[in-house]
Amino acid sequence: MSGSDLLSDAHALTEIYYDDQWHLYDPTSGLSYNNHLGQVASYKELRLRPDLIPPGSLPMHLPALRNLDRDFFAGLFQAGIVHYYYIDK
What we know:
Layout: H1 3-8, E1 14-18, E2 21-26, E3 31-32, H2 43-48, H3 70-79
Antiparallel strand pairs: 1-2, 2-3
């Protein structure tokens, strides 16, 4: 497997804290999801309200994701297995 093959399957999410709240971004595909206030949703919001992920808005640039649907991604957020905390004191 070449380095370019590995990069084509790479994916990252990042959650950034500003304006007194967390905001989840998908820099790999340039996506973010808005909450009911029109603000960028946090991981916690997406975990509790997976309906905030609109149909047809999934990152389809990754070959492994092309056959998955919104419910699969909502399940990942709800499971909590895709989150990593880093706290700098």
